[in-house]
Design a protein that fits this description.
2 domains; alpha/beta
């Protein structure tokens, strides 16, 4: 795997292999010294042109557990404010010794364009490009589903699981990546949101779609993934009334109580408590949000290991 740019690049076999590698790396966290020498001498750079907490720190933790050196670039206070391009910034980082570059950018296709431009020879990992994709988030979500539902997850896909993704689907790179990956792994995915929050091309997605959250709950999903409303990506003309949204699409305690007893609740973060999810649900025994965070480190360890091991 030269780069990781999109879940579309991962077949089910390669995805399962990555998830199995992540399981092996997850065992490192239980050690008294949770480190491996696997990437000693390798420098990973977080090239983040958008704000991030979980993804940025998770990649840092993953790299350090593999003994790699880490440099973190943030656009604020950098030469980007002076007009420097993504290509020039990446070339500068490569000249400084970057061996792997993890890119988060507001522009759709930024990571892919950089990877195929010839500007750098460094492996590129997409950590989120606008409203397009977030492949490592989808992988960690798949890892979480496997760990919860399969007693022995190694080598397992997600066949038979019903996953409901709810919220601002149109602007969610998490929804797009999960729709592709979870479906490829055998899950049945349904996306739900107000009509204004569903993408115009949702009929071409490999998922079912609905504007009726309560009906989707009645269908007894195995997992419900709540997404925040991405106000920063919406325009003034496509806003939905907050009161209406909370009334129709918030995962309240009452709605959660109507789910099957073993249905789990997921969220990629950051959460807007009281908007898409009630605090009582976010902090309940159903919630696997922190498990998602933990799996994020081991999944990103697996991705770093794979891209560094395939530099031909």
């Amino acid at each position: 795997m030269k780069h990781l740019l999109s879940t579309k690049d991962l077949g089910s076999k390669q995805a399962v292999s990555l998830l199995d590698t992540a399981l092996e790396f997850a065992e490192v966290a239980a050690r008294s010294v949770p480190k491996l020498p696997t990437l000693r001498g390798v420098t990973m750079v977080n090239l983040f042109m958008e704000d991030s907490t979980r993804t940025r720190l998770s990649f840092e933790a993953a790299a350090k557990r593999l003994s790699a050196d880490v440099m973190t670039f943030q656009a604020t206070g950098s030469s980007v404010s002076k007009g420097e391009s993504l290509h020039d910034t990446a070339q500068t980082l490569e000249a400084m010794g970057a061996d792997i570059i993890v890119v988060r950018h507001s522009a759709v296709g930024a990571a892919e364009e950089l990877a195929h431009s010839g500007a750098v020879a460094t492996p590129i990992i997409n950590a989120g490009d606008g409203t397009n994709e977030h492949p490592t988030q989808a992988l960690l979500d798949a890892a979480t589903l496997r760990s919860v539902f399969w007693e022995e997850p190694r080598g397992r896909d997600l066949a038979g699981l019903k996953v409901l993704v709810v919220g601002d689907i149109a602007h969610s790179r998490v929804a797009r990546s999960n729709a592709v990956l979870l479906t490829a792994l055998g899950a049945e995915v349904t996306v739900a949101g107000p009509e204004e929050f569903l993408p115009e091309d949702v009929s071409s997605w490999p998922v079912a779609s609905t504007t009726d959250f309560d009906a989707a709950i009645h269908a007894e999903p195995d997992a419900v993934m709540m997404l925040r409303v991405q106000h920063e990506r919406r325009t003034a003309g496509d806003q939905v009334s907050l009161d209406e949204y909370v009334n129709d699409f918030c995962l309240t305690e009452e709605r959660a109580n109507r789910l099957p007893a073993d249905t789990i609740v997921m969220h990629p973060g950051p959460m807007n408590r009281g908007v898409e999810i009630a605090s009582a649900v976010a902090d309940s025994d159903r919630s696997v949000v922190l498990e998602q965070v933990r799996n994020g480190v081991s999944v990103r360890m697996a991705v770093l290991f794979e891209v560094w091991g395939d530099r031909s």
